Amino acid sequence: MIRIKSDKIVTPRGIFDGFLYIDGQKIADVSEKCVPCCEAYDFTGLFVSPGFIDLHTHGGGGHAFMDSSADEVLAGCDFHLSHGTTTILPTVSAGPFSAMRGAVKDIDAAMRSGRAKGHIFGAHLEGPYLSAKQCGAQCPDFITPPKREEYESLFSEFPHSIARWTYAPENDPEGEFCRFVVGRGAVASAGHTDATYPAMKTAMENGCSLVTHLYSCTSTVTRSHGFRSLGVIESAFLRDELFVEIIADGKHLPPELIEMIVKVKGKERVALVTDSLAIAGTDIKEGVMSGTEFIVEDGVCKLKDRSAFAGSVATADRLVRVLVYDCGVSVCDAVKMMAEVPARILNLQKGRLERGFDADIVVFDDKITVRNVFTDGKIVI
Q1: Which of 190, 201, 324, 360 has an alpha carbon 20 to 30 Å from 293's alpha carbon atom?
Q2: At 335, phi and psi to the nearest 5?
Q3: pLDDT by residue (tens digit) across 336-356?
Q4: What does the alpha-carbon distance between residue 73 and residue 63 come to, in Å, rounded to a whole number?
């Protein structure tokens, strides 16, 4: 049994002063009682929180999750672990389907290697079944409608390694693709989409439960012959059953917009994601990525001409910091959106410091700087 002492244990009921006990890979108890244990840690003055869960990241620390290797995937995941991410979904961008298949193969190999310090839950495919009108930084050359032979064969080859698939619902008018993804146990998410409400309604009826980076490449109200139609943004606010993820780096969405999303949608349905690039956590300030010149300034990656953002360089601890210090959200609520809500989206017994939940834990200070990390009840950082 392991005992952790802190006056700032982040629980679903608020900040708790006492002890957290770990038995094996699970949390055994959170209590005011001090029980003798074979291993003990005193984190008084530091926050003890559930481990962060990042549903959407393309890499970090100079390590990409596409066109790389299993070792690169592991290194990128370890980088994010050092910033508190104990469960991660390495994300694969739209590209030639053979390249996307290769990336999933690398992620699968990393998952099966036994060398991951944290939890690689599975791949997140962001494409290629997206909207060319809402492609953002995705290369439009590789965007296609859903092709059954592609996605069926990918799931057949890697049945346990695909956790999530982002797609444009308007390209799946009968819900066939969405229904297949959900039927295979993965999360279907609407993103890079120009859908109107009827397409979103069909998607939800077939199991779509999440919106990818709300306000980034997601449609809004449109008019046709005077008649208005809801877009993805309004659909997300209207339908309580939908979760939304937001890139809460304070750049893609200003603090005021983050506050509005949390106010309207509710903290129980908002997940924070980094959507980070491989250059996150590096000193790289300029370069070429997928043929596009970029610069990094003001805490975000931009196109060289500064006309638009080219991606995020955030880490999970930064997202919590933005919510707390820029948006005025409590530590408990910020952690909920970085841990508990993503766990619910993935149907995992994680994200809460309660008896029976997985003992994935992050320890951080008042500046939301990570000091220690536990996965499966063992200290790894």
Answers
A1: 190
A2: -65, -40
A3: 999 999 999 999 999 999 999
A4: 7
